[in-house]
Fold:
Amino acid sequence: MPTRTAAQLREEAARDYDAFMAECPARHLLDRIGTKWVSLVLLGLADGPQRDSDLSRRIAGVSQKMLTQTLRNLERDGLISRAVTPSVPVRVDYELTALGESLLPLVNAIREWAESNMPKVEAAREQYDAL
Amino acid sequence: MPTRTAAQLREEAARDYDAFMAECPARHLLDRIGTKWVSLVLLGLADGPQRDSDLSRRIAGVSQKMLTQTLRNLERDGLISRAVTPSVPVRVDYELTALGESLLPLVNAIREWAESNMPKVEAAREQYDAL
DNA sequence: CCGCATCCTTAGCGATACTG
DNA sequence: CAGTATCGCTAAGGATGCGG
Structure:
């Protein structure tokens, strides 16, 4: 009989895991910007404030639900700010905060890597699938 | 009666969306590296080849299923290579390809941004939630 | 114009058990 | 040691319709 059972080992691993994840902000960040529309919204706001309706046009194909949800999350995280003009009908403008803007270089770096290297990835994938 | 119905407009948006997505490799990339374990595996392989079992220990908390799945996807995308030594028991080593290594600076950039800025994000979130 | 609420379908992921 | 197969849960996300 081992000093620790498999279940205990799993528990320990889970604790290590939690600790690792907790001290790994990168994962948290990827959880954010990895979600389907975040990068597109950030890029959509890159060249100045935009209205909700403008964004939904700029980011063709986004459902109104996901746009709102994405914007809410970004606002909550302090990456964008939301300004409501109480006219009739209402007007809502979104804008990158300083924190949000500081993320743009990263998003652009990702985009650049992707633009120059994704073709290779596609090629590798086709070759792999051909086997 | 409008020249185009709402349904038609949605269809057009969907086509635009497809075109946009198709020509937007960054999204594809984020779909990859955004998944839960990819960045951790890349970092796990950053300082040299590793055996499957090594990786599963380095990346505490990853299930064996997800580790295999992640490794397979990365291999398929040409980001890592897989070397099998047909001993008994088998030995499998994984290693970053050149393409995979070229992704490391990006992963590290993400990690650095996260380490310096996630506290601000957390703070923003708490403040937002306090309302 | 903006966004919430509801329903429903799929994809991600973990747990477990089994093979060479 | 490395990998596969199955089950079941949960979260993501799209469609639609209502309300300020």
